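Quick board copy: two proteins, each given as sequence then C-alpha coordinates.
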Amino acid sequence: MARSIPIRPAGQGAPVARAAMPFAPGPSLLTSLPPLSVYVHVPWCVRKCPYCDFNSHAAPDELPEDRYLQALTEDLDQSLPQVWGRKVVSVFIGGGTPSLLSAATMDAMLALLRSRLPLLPDAEITMEANPGTVEAARFADFAASGINRISLGIQSFDDDRLRALGRIHDGRAAREAIAIAQRHVERINLDLMFALPGQTLDGCLDDVETALSFGTEHLSLYHLTLEPNTVFAKYPPELPDDDTAFEMQDRIEARLAGAGYDHYEISAYARPGARCRHNLNYWEFGDYLGIGPGAHGKLSFHDRILREARVRNPQSWMDALLDPAAAATHLAESRLVEAKELPFEFMLNALRLADGVPAASFAERTGLNLATIARPLARAVERGLLDEDPTRIRATPLGRRFLNDLQGLFL
Protein backbone atom coordinates (compact mmCIF):
# COMPACT_ATOMS: atom_id res chain seq x y z
CA MET A 1 0.00 0.00 0.00
CA ALA A 2 1.50 3.29 -1.04
CA ARG A 3 1.23 6.80 0.29
CA SER A 4 -1.83 8.67 -0.90
CA ILE A 5 -0.10 11.66 -2.29
CA PRO A 6 0.93 10.27 -5.95
CA ILE A 7 2.71 13.34 -7.32
CA ARG A 8 6.25 12.09 -7.01
CA PRO A 9 9.16 12.50 -9.36
CA ALA A 10 10.36 10.59 -12.36
CA GLY A 11 14.07 9.97 -12.72
CA GLN A 12 16.27 13.01 -13.02
CA GLY A 13 17.67 13.43 -16.47
CA ALA A 14 14.93 11.55 -18.33
CA PRO A 15 14.67 12.73 -21.94
CA VAL A 16 12.33 15.59 -22.68
CA ALA A 17 9.92 14.60 -25.43
CA ARG A 18 7.84 17.26 -27.13
CA ALA A 19 5.13 16.75 -29.71
CA ALA A 20 2.35 18.79 -31.26
CA MET A 21 0.10 15.99 -32.47
CA PRO A 22 -2.98 15.05 -30.43
CA PHE A 23 -2.75 11.86 -28.39
CA ALA A 24 -5.55 10.30 -30.46
CA PRO A 25 -7.64 11.53 -33.38
CA GLY A 26 -11.31 12.29 -33.83
CA PRO A 27 -13.53 10.74 -31.15
CA SER A 28 -10.80 10.93 -28.49
CA LEU A 29 -11.07 14.70 -28.16
CA LEU A 30 -12.06 15.93 -24.71
CA THR A 31 -15.32 17.86 -24.62
CA SER A 32 -14.51 19.53 -21.28
CA LEU A 33 -11.51 19.93 -19.00
CA PRO A 34 -11.38 18.40 -15.51
CA PRO A 35 -10.81 20.37 -12.29
CA LEU A 36 -7.30 21.74 -11.81
CA SER A 37 -5.16 21.44 -8.67
CA VAL A 38 -1.64 22.71 -7.94
CA TYR A 39 1.11 20.74 -6.22
CA VAL A 40 4.17 22.59 -4.85
CA HIS A 41 7.18 20.53 -3.81
CA VAL A 42 9.47 21.61 -0.98
CA PRO A 43 12.40 19.17 -1.12
CA TRP A 44 14.14 19.55 2.26
CA CYS A 45 13.86 17.55 5.48
CA VAL A 46 15.84 17.72 8.70
CA ARG A 47 16.90 14.14 8.01
CA LYS A 48 16.03 11.52 5.40
CA CYS A 49 13.96 8.71 6.91
CA PRO A 50 15.17 5.18 6.06
CA TYR A 51 11.81 4.10 4.58
CA CYS A 52 11.28 7.23 2.45
CA ASP A 53 11.47 7.06 -1.36
CA PHE A 54 10.12 10.57 -1.96
CA ASN A 55 12.24 13.34 -3.44
CA SER A 56 13.53 14.66 -0.13
CA HIS A 57 17.00 15.90 0.77
CA ALA A 58 18.71 16.67 4.07
CA ALA A 59 18.42 20.40 4.68
CA PRO A 60 21.60 22.54 4.60
CA ASP A 61 22.42 24.65 7.63
CA GLU A 62 20.56 27.52 5.99
CA LEU A 63 17.78 26.88 3.50
CA PRO A 64 18.15 28.81 0.19
CA GLU A 65 14.63 30.16 0.62
CA ASP A 66 15.03 33.28 -1.54
CA ARG A 67 16.55 31.36 -4.43
CA TYR A 68 13.96 28.59 -4.09
CA LEU A 69 11.14 31.14 -4.24
CA GLN A 70 12.70 32.85 -7.28
CA ALA A 71 12.95 29.50 -9.06
CA LEU A 72 9.40 28.60 -8.08
CA THR A 73 8.21 31.88 -9.57
CA GLU A 74 10.00 31.16 -12.84
CA ASP A 75 8.70 27.56 -12.88
CA LEU A 76 5.13 28.80 -12.44
CA ASP A 77 5.50 31.60 -14.98
CA GLN A 78 6.75 29.19 -17.64
CA SER A 79 3.75 26.94 -16.95
CA LEU A 80 1.05 29.62 -17.04
CA PRO A 81 0.27 29.35 -20.78
CA GLN A 82 -0.73 25.70 -20.21
CA VAL A 83 -3.34 26.55 -17.55
CA TRP A 84 -4.27 30.12 -18.37
CA GLY A 85 -7.73 31.07 -17.12
CA ARG A 86 -8.44 27.73 -15.43
CA LYS A 87 -9.73 27.94 -11.86
CA VAL A 88 -7.74 26.14 -9.16
CA VAL A 89 -9.76 23.99 -6.74
CA SER A 90 -6.93 23.00 -4.37
CA VAL A 91 -3.27 23.51 -3.53
CA PHE A 92 -1.05 20.93 -1.83
CA ILE A 93 2.36 21.96 -0.49
CA GLY A 94 4.25 18.73 0.07
CA GLY A 95 7.75 17.47 0.56
CA GLY A 96 10.06 16.97 2.11
CA THR A 97 8.96 19.08 5.05
CA PRO A 98 7.29 22.34 3.97
CA SER A 99 6.96 23.47 7.58
CA LEU A 100 10.76 23.99 7.57
CA LEU A 101 10.17 27.12 5.49
CA SER A 102 9.89 30.42 7.29
CA ALA A 103 6.48 31.99 7.72
CA ALA A 104 7.57 34.83 5.41
CA THR A 105 8.52 32.42 2.61
CA MET A 106 5.26 30.50 2.96
CA ASP A 107 3.33 33.77 2.83
CA ALA A 108 5.22 34.84 -0.29
CA MET A 109 4.60 31.45 -1.92
CA LEU A 110 0.85 31.68 -1.39
CA ALA A 111 0.84 35.29 -2.58
CA LEU A 112 2.66 34.12 -5.71
CA LEU A 113 0.03 31.50 -6.44
CA ARG A 114 -2.85 33.90 -5.86
CA SER A 115 -1.31 36.60 -8.06
CA ARG A 116 -1.00 34.30 -11.07
CA LEU A 117 -3.75 31.71 -10.70
CA PRO A 118 -7.51 32.13 -10.08
CA LEU A 119 -7.84 30.16 -6.83
CA LEU A 120 -11.45 29.48 -5.91
CA PRO A 121 -12.53 31.35 -2.75
CA ASP A 122 -13.02 28.04 -0.91
CA ALA A 123 -9.92 26.34 -2.36
CA GLU A 124 -8.43 23.71 -0.07
CA ILE A 125 -4.82 24.69 0.72
CA THR A 126 -2.91 21.90 2.46
CA MET A 127 0.57 21.98 3.94
CA GLU A 128 2.47 18.89 5.09
CA ALA A 129 4.27 19.24 8.41
CA ASN A 130 6.30 17.07 10.75
CA PRO A 131 6.06 17.31 14.55
CA GLY A 132 9.80 17.75 14.79
CA THR A 133 9.62 21.16 13.11
CA VAL A 134 6.57 22.59 14.80
CA GLU A 135 6.30 25.75 16.87
CA ALA A 136 3.09 27.59 17.77
CA ALA A 137 4.01 30.98 16.28
CA ARG A 138 4.91 29.50 12.92
CA PHE A 139 1.68 27.50 12.68
CA ALA A 140 -0.32 30.61 13.49
CA ASP A 141 1.51 32.51 10.74
CA PHE A 142 1.00 29.70 8.24
CA ALA A 143 -2.73 29.81 8.93
CA ALA A 144 -2.75 33.60 8.59
CA SER A 145 -1.15 33.20 5.14
CA GLY A 146 -4.03 31.03 3.98
CA ILE A 147 -3.14 27.46 4.91
CA ASN A 148 -6.51 25.92 5.82
CA ARG A 149 -5.54 22.26 6.09
CA ILE A 150 -2.49 20.68 7.74
CA SER A 151 -1.35 17.10 7.21
CA LEU A 152 0.86 16.01 10.11
CA GLY A 153 3.34 13.17 9.60
CA ILE A 154 2.81 11.47 12.97
CA GLN A 155 3.45 7.85 11.84
CA SER A 156 3.23 6.54 15.43
CA PHE A 157 2.89 7.73 19.01
CA ASP A 158 5.18 4.98 20.31
CA ASP A 159 8.72 6.20 21.00
CA ASP A 160 10.30 2.82 20.18
CA ARG A 161 8.47 2.59 16.85
CA LEU A 162 9.43 6.17 15.99
CA ARG A 163 13.10 5.43 16.66
CA ALA A 164 12.86 2.33 14.47
CA LEU A 165 11.48 4.50 11.67
CA GLY A 166 14.27 7.04 12.06
CA ARG A 167 11.86 9.84 12.97
CA ILE A 168 13.21 12.94 14.71
CA HIS A 169 10.18 13.42 16.99
CA ASP A 170 8.81 11.40 19.91
CA GLY A 171 5.28 10.67 21.02
CA ARG A 172 5.07 13.75 23.23
CA ALA A 173 6.10 16.02 20.35
CA ALA A 174 3.47 14.39 18.17
CA ARG A 175 0.73 15.11 20.71
CA GLU A 176 1.90 18.70 21.16
CA ALA A 177 2.01 19.27 17.39
CA ILE A 178 -1.58 18.09 16.97
CA ALA A 179 -2.77 20.39 19.75
CA ILE A 180 -0.93 23.36 18.22
CA ALA A 181 -2.33 22.69 14.76
CA GLN A 182 -5.86 22.38 16.10
CA ARG A 183 -5.62 25.82 17.69
CA HIS A 184 -4.91 27.47 14.35
CA VAL A 185 -6.32 25.37 11.49
CA GLU A 186 -9.75 23.79 11.31
CA ARG A 187 -8.96 20.89 8.97
CA ILE A 188 -6.30 18.45 10.22
CA ASN A 189 -5.10 15.15 8.79
CA LEU A 190 -2.95 12.72 10.75
CA ASP A 191 -0.65 10.37 8.84
CA LEU A 192 -0.07 7.07 10.62
CA MET A 193 1.76 3.91 9.57
CA PHE A 194 1.22 0.32 10.63
CA ALA A 195 3.05 -3.02 10.32
CA LEU A 196 6.11 -1.23 11.68
CA PRO A 197 9.35 -2.86 12.86
CA GLY A 198 8.60 -4.61 16.16
CA GLN A 199 4.96 -3.49 16.20
CA THR A 200 2.32 -5.74 17.78
CA LEU A 201 -1.39 -5.74 17.03
CA ASP A 202 -2.06 -4.07 20.38
CA GLY A 203 0.57 -1.43 19.67
CA CYS A 204 -0.99 -0.68 16.30
CA LEU A 205 -4.45 -0.30 17.83
CA ASP A 206 -3.05 1.91 20.61
CA ASP A 207 -1.79 4.31 17.91
CA VAL A 208 -5.24 4.39 16.33
CA GLU A 209 -6.93 5.04 19.68
CA THR A 210 -4.53 7.87 20.43
CA ALA A 211 -5.20 9.43 17.04
CA LEU A 212 -8.96 9.14 17.57
CA SER A 213 -8.70 10.86 20.94
CA PHE A 214 -7.86 14.15 19.19
CA GLY A 215 -11.06 14.11 17.14
CA THR A 216 -9.44 15.20 13.86
CA GLU A 217 -11.63 14.84 10.80
CA HIS A 218 -9.24 12.92 8.54
CA LEU A 219 -6.81 10.04 9.09
CA SER A 220 -4.43 8.41 6.62
CA LEU A 221 -3.23 4.90 7.48
CA TYR A 222 -0.38 3.42 5.46
CA HIS A 223 1.04 -0.08 5.49
CA LEU A 224 4.83 0.27 5.73
CA THR A 225 6.38 -1.04 2.52
CA LEU A 226 10.08 -1.47 1.78
CA GLU A 227 10.51 0.72 -1.29
CA PRO A 228 13.47 0.33 -3.68
CA ASN A 229 16.42 2.68 -3.24
CA THR A 230 15.79 3.25 0.44
CA VAL A 231 17.88 2.36 3.48
CA PHE A 232 15.20 -0.12 4.58
CA ALA A 233 15.39 -1.85 1.18
CA LYS A 234 19.14 -2.33 1.62
CA TYR A 235 18.95 -3.20 5.32
CA PRO A 236 15.44 -4.62 5.85
CA PRO A 237 14.10 -4.43 9.40
CA GLU A 238 12.09 -7.28 10.88
CA LEU A 239 8.42 -6.56 10.19
CA PRO A 240 5.18 -8.21 11.34
CA ASP A 241 4.25 -11.21 9.19
CA ASP A 242 1.57 -10.93 6.51
CA ASP A 243 -1.18 -12.47 8.65
CA THR A 244 -0.54 -9.98 11.46
CA ALA A 245 -0.41 -7.08 9.01
CA PHE A 246 -3.75 -8.14 7.46
CA GLU A 247 -5.29 -8.40 10.91
CA MET A 248 -4.01 -4.93 11.75
CA GLN A 249 -5.64 -3.55 8.62
CA ASP A 250 -8.96 -5.30 9.30
CA ARG A 251 -9.04 -4.10 12.90
CA ILE A 252 -8.16 -0.54 11.84
CA GLU A 253 -11.00 -0.49 9.32
CA ALA A 254 -13.50 -1.83 11.84
CA ARG A 255 -12.45 0.58 14.59
CA LEU A 256 -12.55 3.66 12.38
CA ALA A 257 -15.89 2.66 10.89
CA GLY A 258 -17.24 2.39 14.43
CA ALA A 259 -15.90 5.89 15.16
CA GLY A 260 -17.79 7.37 12.21
CA TYR A 261 -14.96 7.54 9.67
CA ASP A 262 -15.72 6.62 6.05
CA HIS A 263 -13.02 4.48 4.47
CA TYR A 264 -13.36 6.33 1.19
CA GLU A 265 -9.98 5.50 -0.36
CA ILE A 266 -7.46 2.69 0.11
CA SER A 267 -5.45 4.57 2.74
CA ALA A 268 -7.80 7.41 3.70
CA TYR A 269 -10.57 7.74 6.30
CA ALA A 270 -12.71 10.81 6.80
CA ARG A 271 -15.69 12.06 8.73
CA PRO A 272 -18.65 13.32 6.64
CA GLY A 273 -17.69 16.30 4.52
CA ALA A 274 -13.98 16.03 5.34
CA ARG A 275 -12.55 14.09 2.41
CA CYS A 276 -9.30 15.51 1.03
CA ARG A 277 -10.41 17.44 -2.03
CA HIS A 278 -6.91 17.66 -3.45
CA ASN A 279 -6.31 13.92 -3.44
CA LEU A 280 -9.84 13.23 -4.65
CA ASN A 281 -8.98 15.23 -7.75
CA TYR A 282 -6.02 12.91 -8.39
CA TRP A 283 -8.10 9.78 -7.95
CA GLU A 284 -10.90 11.08 -10.15
CA PHE A 285 -8.32 11.66 -12.92
CA GLY A 286 -8.40 15.42 -12.59
CA ASP A 287 -5.57 17.71 -13.64
CA TYR A 288 -2.69 19.02 -11.53
CA LEU A 289 0.13 21.40 -12.21
CA GLY A 290 3.25 20.32 -10.34
CA ILE A 291 5.98 22.88 -9.64
CA GLY A 292 9.15 22.58 -7.63
CA PRO A 293 12.00 20.03 -7.85
CA GLY A 294 10.75 16.57 -8.78
CA ALA A 295 7.08 17.58 -8.97
CA HIS A 296 4.83 15.72 -11.41
CA GLY A 297 1.94 17.17 -13.35
CA LYS A 298 -0.94 16.01 -15.55
CA LEU A 299 -2.61 18.57 -17.77
CA SER A 300 -5.51 18.03 -20.17
CA PHE A 301 -6.21 19.94 -23.34
CA HIS A 302 -9.06 19.41 -25.76
CA ASP A 303 -6.82 17.41 -28.10
CA ARG A 304 -4.24 15.84 -25.79
CA ILE A 305 -3.17 14.93 -22.26
CA LEU A 306 0.32 15.94 -21.13
CA ARG A 307 2.46 14.53 -18.33
CA GLU A 308 5.41 16.45 -16.94
CA ALA A 309 8.07 15.94 -14.28
CA ARG A 310 10.60 18.45 -12.98
CA VAL A 311 14.28 17.70 -12.37
CA ARG A 312 14.63 16.05 -8.95
CA ASN A 313 17.79 17.64 -7.61
CA PRO A 314 16.94 20.97 -5.94
CA GLN A 315 20.17 22.69 -6.97
CA SER A 316 19.90 21.49 -10.58
CA TRP A 317 16.27 22.59 -10.74
CA MET A 318 17.11 26.06 -9.41
CA ASP A 319 20.14 26.45 -11.69
CA ALA A 320 18.17 25.47 -14.79
CA LEU A 321 15.53 28.09 -14.04
CA LEU A 322 17.70 30.96 -12.80
CA ASP A 323 21.06 30.68 -14.55
CA PRO A 324 20.80 32.32 -18.00
CA ALA A 325 23.81 30.33 -19.15
CA ALA A 326 22.37 26.98 -18.08
CA ALA A 327 22.03 24.58 -20.99
CA ALA A 328 19.82 22.18 -19.07
CA THR A 329 16.04 22.35 -18.76
CA HIS A 330 14.17 22.19 -15.46
CA LEU A 331 11.95 19.51 -17.00
CA ALA A 332 12.99 15.89 -16.67
CA GLU A 333 10.00 14.73 -18.69
CA SER A 334 7.33 16.24 -20.91
CA ARG A 335 5.31 13.80 -22.98
CA LEU A 336 1.90 13.21 -24.45
CA VAL A 337 -0.02 10.29 -22.96
CA GLU A 338 -0.87 7.76 -25.65
CA ALA A 339 -4.46 6.61 -26.01
CA LYS A 340 -3.45 3.01 -25.21
CA GLU A 341 -2.07 4.16 -21.83
CA LEU A 342 -5.18 6.00 -20.70
CA PRO A 343 -7.37 3.08 -19.53
CA PHE A 344 -4.72 1.88 -17.08
CA GLU A 345 -3.87 5.41 -15.91
CA PHE A 346 -7.55 6.15 -15.31
CA MET A 347 -8.19 2.90 -13.45
CA LEU A 348 -4.97 3.16 -11.43
CA ASN A 349 -6.55 6.15 -9.73
CA ALA A 350 -10.33 5.66 -9.89
CA LEU A 351 -10.34 2.14 -8.48
CA ARG A 352 -8.72 3.35 -5.25
CA LEU A 353 -12.00 5.03 -4.32
CA ALA A 354 -14.51 2.98 -2.34
CA ASP A 355 -17.38 4.65 -4.20
CA GLY A 356 -15.64 4.35 -7.55
CA VAL A 357 -16.54 6.87 -10.23
CA PRO A 358 -19.47 7.34 -12.61
CA ALA A 359 -18.95 5.25 -15.76
CA ALA A 360 -19.46 8.39 -17.84
CA SER A 361 -16.35 9.98 -16.31
CA PHE A 362 -14.12 7.56 -18.22
CA ALA A 363 -15.04 9.22 -21.53
CA GLU A 364 -15.09 12.69 -19.96
CA ARG A 365 -11.57 12.40 -18.55
CA THR A 366 -9.85 10.29 -21.25
CA GLY A 367 -11.69 11.16 -24.46
CA LEU A 368 -12.12 7.43 -25.12
CA ASN A 369 -15.41 5.63 -25.52
CA LEU A 370 -16.24 3.26 -22.65
CA ALA A 371 -16.60 0.51 -25.25
CA THR A 372 -12.81 0.51 -25.64
CA ILE A 373 -12.49 -1.20 -22.25
CA ALA A 374 -15.61 -3.40 -22.50
CA ARG A 375 -13.62 -6.64 -22.42
CA PRO A 376 -11.51 -5.97 -19.32
CA LEU A 377 -14.61 -4.56 -17.57
CA ALA A 378 -16.47 -7.78 -18.31
CA ARG A 379 -13.56 -9.92 -17.11
CA ALA A 380 -13.35 -7.95 -13.88
CA VAL A 381 -17.08 -8.38 -13.24
CA GLU A 382 -16.88 -12.11 -13.99
CA ARG A 383 -14.08 -12.49 -11.44
CA GLY A 384 -16.03 -10.61 -8.79
CA LEU A 385 -13.56 -7.72 -8.75
CA LEU A 386 -15.94 -5.03 -10.09
CA ASP A 387 -19.59 -4.27 -9.32
CA GLU A 388 -22.07 -5.16 -12.03
CA ASP A 389 -23.63 -1.68 -11.97
CA PRO A 390 -23.26 -0.38 -15.58
CA THR A 391 -23.52 3.25 -14.45
CA ARG A 392 -20.56 3.11 -12.08
CA ILE A 393 -16.99 1.78 -12.12
CA ARG A 394 -16.43 0.51 -8.60
CA ALA A 395 -14.32 -2.25 -7.10
CA THR A 396 -15.98 -4.87 -4.96
CA PRO A 397 -14.53 -5.64 -1.52
CA LEU A 398 -12.65 -8.49 -3.20
CA GLY A 399 -11.40 -6.12 -5.89
CA ARG A 400 -10.13 -3.67 -3.29
CA ARG A 401 -8.32 -6.49 -1.52
CA PHE A 402 -6.63 -7.51 -4.79
CA LEU A 403 -6.39 -4.05 -6.28
CA ASN A 404 -3.16 -4.60 -8.19
CA ASP A 405 -4.68 -7.59 -9.99
CA LEU A 406 -7.80 -5.60 -10.83
CA GLN A 407 -5.87 -2.60 -12.15
CA GLY A 408 -3.61 -4.91 -14.16
CA LEU A 409 -6.58 -6.05 -16.27
CA PHE A 410 -6.54 -2.61 -17.92
CA LEU A 411 -2.89 -2.60 -18.94
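And the next:
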Amino acid sequence: MNNNKNADNDNPLMDFTNCHVGIIKNFEQLRVLATTTISEPVTQDIKQMAAQLYGFFHEVVLTHHEEEEEELFSVVIDCAKRGEETSKAKKMIKQLTNEHRMLEMQWKLIEPDIKQLAKGKPVIFDQAMALRLADNYLQHAQFEEREFLPLSAEILGDKGLSSLGMSIHMRHTPLGVLNYM
Protein backbone atom coordinates (compact mmCIF):
# COMPACT_ATOMS: atom_id res chain seq x y z
CA MET A 1 0.00 0.00 0.00
CA ASN A 2 1.05 3.60 0.42
CA ASN A 3 4.39 4.16 2.14
CA ASN A 4 3.47 7.68 3.25
CA LYS A 5 2.55 7.48 6.93
CA ASN A 6 0.27 10.51 6.77
CA ALA A 7 -1.60 9.05 3.82
CA ASP A 8 -1.93 5.76 5.70
CA ASN A 9 -3.53 7.56 8.64
CA ASP A 10 -6.23 8.79 6.26
CA ASN A 11 -6.73 5.36 4.69
CA PRO A 12 -9.33 3.30 6.58
CA LEU A 13 -8.11 0.14 4.82
CA MET A 14 -5.01 0.49 6.98
CA ASP A 15 -7.24 -0.18 10.01
CA PHE A 16 -7.89 -3.64 8.59
CA THR A 17 -4.25 -4.17 7.56
CA ASN A 18 -2.95 -3.06 10.96
CA CYS A 19 -5.43 -5.34 12.68
CA HIS A 20 -4.02 -8.26 10.71
CA VAL A 21 -0.59 -7.62 12.23
CA GLY A 22 -1.98 -8.31 15.70
CA ILE A 23 -4.10 -11.19 14.48
CA ILE A 24 -1.11 -12.85 12.81
CA LYS A 25 0.99 -12.39 15.95
CA ASN A 26 -1.69 -14.01 18.12
CA PHE A 27 -2.33 -16.91 15.77
CA GLU A 28 1.41 -17.53 15.68
CA GLN A 29 1.14 -17.71 19.50
CA LEU A 30 -1.61 -20.28 19.08
CA ARG A 31 0.82 -22.31 16.95
CA VAL A 32 3.32 -22.11 19.81
CA LEU A 33 0.70 -23.26 22.31
CA ALA A 34 -0.32 -26.09 19.99
CA THR A 35 3.24 -27.39 19.84
CA THR A 36 3.94 -27.03 23.56
CA THR A 37 3.76 -29.98 25.89
CA ILE A 38 1.18 -29.18 28.54
CA SER A 39 1.78 -30.85 31.86
CA GLU A 40 0.31 -30.68 35.32
CA PRO A 41 0.52 -28.25 36.98
CA VAL A 42 -0.14 -25.84 34.12
CA THR A 43 2.73 -23.36 33.96
CA GLN A 44 2.22 -19.62 34.35
CA ASP A 45 3.42 -19.11 30.75
CA ILE A 46 0.73 -21.42 29.41
CA LYS A 47 -1.93 -19.78 31.60
CA GLN A 48 -0.97 -16.32 30.36
CA MET A 49 -0.78 -17.40 26.72
CA ALA A 50 -4.20 -19.06 26.91
CA ALA A 51 -5.76 -16.05 28.66
CA GLN A 52 -4.28 -13.72 26.04
CA LEU A 53 -5.60 -15.88 23.18
CA TYR A 54 -9.06 -16.20 24.74
CA GLY A 55 -9.40 -12.45 25.27
CA PHE A 56 -7.93 -11.61 21.90
CA PHE A 57 -10.33 -13.82 20.01
CA HIS A 58 -13.37 -12.38 21.77
CA GLU A 59 -12.26 -8.74 21.85
CA VAL A 60 -10.49 -8.41 18.49
CA VAL A 61 -11.11 -11.25 16.05
CA LEU A 62 -14.91 -11.36 16.32
CA THR A 63 -15.12 -7.55 16.12
CA HIS A 64 -12.77 -7.57 13.13
CA HIS A 65 -14.98 -10.07 11.29
CA GLU A 66 -18.09 -8.04 12.11
CA GLU A 67 -16.56 -4.76 10.93
CA GLU A 68 -15.32 -6.30 7.70
CA GLU A 69 -18.70 -7.82 6.96
CA GLU A 70 -20.83 -4.84 7.97
CA GLU A 71 -18.60 -1.98 6.87
CA LEU A 72 -15.86 -2.89 4.41
CA PHE A 73 -17.68 -5.52 2.38
CA SER A 74 -20.81 -3.37 2.04
CA VAL A 75 -18.92 -0.29 0.88
CA VAL A 76 -16.84 -2.32 -1.60
CA ILE A 77 -19.99 -3.79 -3.18
CA ASP A 78 -21.68 -0.37 -3.26
CA CYS A 79 -18.68 1.21 -5.01
CA ALA A 80 -17.81 -1.62 -7.41
CA LYS A 81 -18.54 -1.10 -11.09
CA ARG A 82 -21.32 -3.33 -12.38
CA GLY A 83 -20.12 -6.39 -14.19
CA GLU A 84 -16.77 -8.07 -13.74
CA GLU A 85 -15.61 -5.86 -10.83
CA THR A 86 -18.79 -6.50 -8.83
CA SER A 87 -18.65 -10.20 -9.64
CA LYS A 88 -15.02 -10.49 -8.52
CA ALA A 89 -15.67 -8.55 -5.31
CA LYS A 90 -18.77 -10.60 -4.46
CA LYS A 91 -16.89 -13.85 -5.04
CA MET A 92 -14.07 -12.78 -2.71
CA ILE A 93 -16.51 -11.48 -0.09
CA LYS A 94 -18.43 -14.75 -0.14
CA GLN A 95 -15.16 -16.66 0.31
CA LEU A 96 -14.00 -14.42 3.16
CA THR A 97 -17.37 -14.54 4.94
CA ASN A 98 -17.46 -18.33 4.66
CA GLU A 99 -13.91 -18.44 6.04
CA HIS A 100 -14.95 -16.24 8.98
CA ARG A 101 -17.70 -18.71 9.92
CA MET A 102 -15.37 -21.72 9.48
CA LEU A 103 -12.64 -20.10 11.60
CA GLU A 104 -15.15 -19.18 14.30
CA MET A 105 -16.41 -22.79 14.33
CA GLN A 106 -12.86 -24.10 14.62
CA TRP A 107 -12.28 -21.73 17.54
CA LYS A 108 -15.41 -23.05 19.28
CA LEU A 109 -13.84 -26.54 19.20
CA ILE A 110 -10.76 -25.45 21.17
CA GLU A 111 -12.26 -22.57 23.17
CA PRO A 112 -13.29 -24.66 26.22
CA ASP A 113 -9.73 -25.99 26.53
CA ILE A 114 -8.21 -22.53 26.08
CA LYS A 115 -10.52 -21.22 28.80
CA GLN A 116 -9.53 -24.06 31.17
CA LEU A 117 -5.81 -23.55 30.48
CA ALA A 118 -6.23 -19.84 31.22
CA LYS A 119 -7.57 -20.86 34.65
CA GLY A 120 -4.57 -23.16 35.15
CA LYS A 121 -6.60 -26.33 34.79
CA PRO A 122 -4.98 -29.20 32.88
CA VAL A 123 -6.76 -30.44 29.74
CA ILE A 124 -6.17 -32.84 26.90
CA PHE A 125 -5.65 -30.08 24.36
CA ASP A 126 -6.56 -30.80 20.73
CA GLN A 127 -3.23 -29.59 19.42
CA ALA A 128 -3.99 -30.71 15.84
CA MET A 129 -7.16 -28.58 15.76
CA ALA A 130 -5.31 -25.61 17.26
CA LEU A 131 -2.60 -25.90 14.59
CA ARG A 132 -5.23 -26.21 11.85
CA LEU A 133 -7.02 -23.09 13.11
CA ALA A 134 -3.77 -21.13 13.32
CA ASP A 135 -2.72 -22.18 9.81
CA ASN A 136 -6.17 -21.51 8.35
CA TYR A 137 -6.32 -18.06 9.93
CA LEU A 138 -2.86 -17.15 8.70
CA GLN A 139 -3.86 -18.20 5.15
CA HIS A 140 -7.09 -16.21 5.47
CA ALA A 141 -5.26 -13.05 6.54
CA GLN A 142 -2.68 -13.47 3.75
CA PHE A 143 -5.45 -13.76 1.15
CA GLU A 144 -7.09 -10.59 2.46
CA GLU A 145 -3.80 -8.69 2.41
CA ARG A 146 -2.62 -9.99 -0.95
CA GLU A 147 -5.90 -10.08 -2.89
CA PHE A 148 -8.91 -8.45 -1.27
CA LEU A 149 -7.53 -5.27 0.30
CA PRO A 150 -5.73 -4.20 -2.92
CA LEU A 151 -8.94 -4.84 -4.88
CA SER A 152 -10.86 -2.85 -2.25
CA ALA A 153 -8.46 0.08 -2.54
CA GLU A 154 -8.83 0.06 -6.32
CA ILE A 155 -12.64 -0.11 -6.16
CA LEU A 156 -13.10 2.44 -3.41
CA GLY A 157 -10.85 5.24 -4.62
CA ASP A 158 -10.90 8.44 -2.56
CA LYS A 159 -14.70 8.77 -2.35
CA GLY A 160 -15.26 5.23 -1.16
CA LEU A 161 -12.36 5.40 1.28
CA SER A 162 -13.88 8.55 2.77
CA SER A 163 -17.22 6.81 3.13
CA LEU A 164 -15.60 3.78 4.74
CA GLY A 165 -13.57 6.00 7.07
CA MET A 166 -16.69 7.84 8.23
CA SER A 167 -18.54 4.57 8.73
CA ILE A 168 -15.73 3.11 10.83
CA HIS A 169 -15.37 6.35 12.80
CA MET A 170 -19.09 6.45 13.59
CA ARG A 171 -19.03 2.79 14.63
CA HIS A 172 -16.37 3.60 17.24
CA THR A 173 -17.88 6.87 18.44
CA PRO A 174 -20.19 6.42 21.41
CA LEU A 175 -23.46 8.18 20.91
CA GLY A 176 -24.84 9.95 23.92
CA VAL A 177 -28.50 10.40 24.62
CA LEU A 178 -29.54 13.93 23.85
CA ASN A 179 -31.76 15.69 26.36
CA TYR A 180 -34.98 17.04 24.96
CA MET A 181 -36.82 19.80 26.72
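Board note added afterward: The CA atoms of residues 82 and 179 lie 44 Å apart.
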